[in-house]
Amino acid sequence: MCGIVGLLIKKPAQRKELGRLLLPMFTCMADRGPDSAGLAVYGTPVAQGLRRFNLFVPDRQFNWKKLADRFRDQTGATVELTAVENHAVFVSDVAPGAMRAWLAECDPTPHLLSVGRSIDIYKDEGHPTEIAKRYGFAELSGSHSIAHTRMATESAVSPAHAHPFTAGEDFCLVHNGSLSNPYQLRRMLERRGMRFETDNDTEAACRFIEWRLAQGEPLNAALHTAFAELDGFYTLLIATGDSMTLVRDAFACKPAVVAETDEYVAIASEFRSLAHLPGVKSANIFEPLPEEIYSWQA
Fold this sequence. Notes:
This protein is of the alpha+beta class and 298 residues long. It has a domain at 3-34 and 151-297: Aminohydrolase, N-terminal nucleophile (Ntn) domain (Glutamine Phosphoribosylpyrophosphate, subunit 1, domain 1), CATH 3.60.20.10. Helices cover 26% and strands 31% of the residues. Helix 5 (182-191) packs across helix 6 and helix 6 (201-214) crosses helix 7. The longest helix has 14 residues, at 201-214.
């Protein structure tokens, strides 16, 4: 079943309220997905030449400082560490490929969740309410965020299988639905050198769309290609460093509702997730049409 939510704050002065407004949206969708959950948030980009590397380990007692010191000593790269429980962010001047190579060779324990100048990803196994408290979702600030609560139907329950899925830089996706051709997409992408980390159908959709972007297609063109190639039922909510985009399949059988005001754009699988938002009674509220692309700039 799964639940998706998204929130984009239009006015920079109000972006410190992102987490406070998003948290009730997120926990309201726990009934649709109680086994794992995750969130992507986009904040102020780091300086040119730097990237944010989000890492996850199963062990909450993991020594992140020791890893950061080892990384600095062995690579000579700069690194600024922020750690919360299972999660850490390395802000570094190292290239993404070099970071992946170093992790694979020196310590494969951490899982690289995301790379980019503005994205942070938090995802874990467990009830969404517990995950939100564990990682302090209420205190998050930023321009926009997308989140997901998962009820697993086609692959394992694990942090790796939780949404959002990421590919490339500052690109992520959450999905409610089921694809019937993920392995066909996967084989095609693997022949082109793309590596997969799970057997989740959402990862296939995420990597397919990002592959089209890497070929030079704008996001709208990549999504029109996806309409032709993704087989199944889906509502996809996509975030980049400067946008939030929503699409549904040709049958639009997976629920979604949008509420837009002068202050925000809010998206959820059910309206009850939006009911607490300020000014929602006078918002433009609508159900997205099938195979239409709805995009908002941050």
